[in-house]
Amino acid sequence: MAPRTAKALPDLSQYGQLAEYNRKRHFGVTPEPAGKGTERKTGRPLEFIVQKHRASRLHYDFRLEHRGVMLSWAVPKGPSPDPAVKRLAMETEPHPMDYNQFEGVIPEGEYGGGTVMIWDKGVWAPDAVNRLGGEDDVDRQIKKGELKFVLLGEKLAGSWVLVRTRGTRQWLLIKHRDQYASDEDITVTKPLSVVSGRTMAEIARAGRATPRQIAEAAGADPPSIATGGNSRPPRPAAPRKATPKRARPAAARPRARR
Questions:
Q1: Are strands 157-166 and 69-75 parallel, antiparallel or unpaired?
Q2: In the chain, what are the domain boundaries?
Q3: Do residues 161 and 87 make contact, with C-beta atoms less than 8 angstroms apart?
Q4: Per-residue confidence at 60, pLDDT binned at 50, 70, 90?
Q5: Measured at the alpha carbon of residue 237, what is the angle toward residues 231 and 241, in degrees to the nearest 5?
Q6: H helices of the chain, where?
Q7: Cα separation of 165 and 89, whole Å?
């Protein structure tokens, strides 16, 4: 019997930086957008986005627009505005610009299967020695292994840096000390989607996730958020008005015996 020839992989070279993104996904099954490059309009600010993603494990996908795609890092514990906290950021394949609008559920069995929330979004610019840089500055800094930038988002802002620590994929995401620095854990205090106002559990239910995916999404919400009904952080209780104490009647004095 003649040996079976291996099935040739499709030619994805036309997709450039998005070839790996397309190779990992079946777009007839997943609602994620197909990868295609986008030409940047002159004068338009660069986009950034952070997507909270409960796949096999919870992580936050940190993405910066560069040369028509979104450069991407998976941050397991999420960004921290505390300069003393260094967050591990694993570089992943670039994503298409259209992915910036994706919030929903990736089906079970597909790459990255699970719930995706648009946790933060805004604009960014590379920091090149006290000036806002351009694409060449980004290329140069990434090659060097130290990308400095400023963010203006709904949750994240100010000056940051990505520092490569090991190999080509392992980086640290660090907040610089400025007026936006804080020791607040914003993954807990600001847990809702910036586009829909929903929790992870609500996104999972709306996306017709499986019961297991819904349970995992609910587990990715902070404990302060209820998992059923109106899944919103509880409102602080209104202060109770002090009620005046009633004066106790004076004890009757015993009558003196005559």
A1: unpaired
A2: 38-220
A3: no
A4: very high
A5: 160
A6: 19-23, 135-144, 186-189, 200-206, 211-220
A7: 10
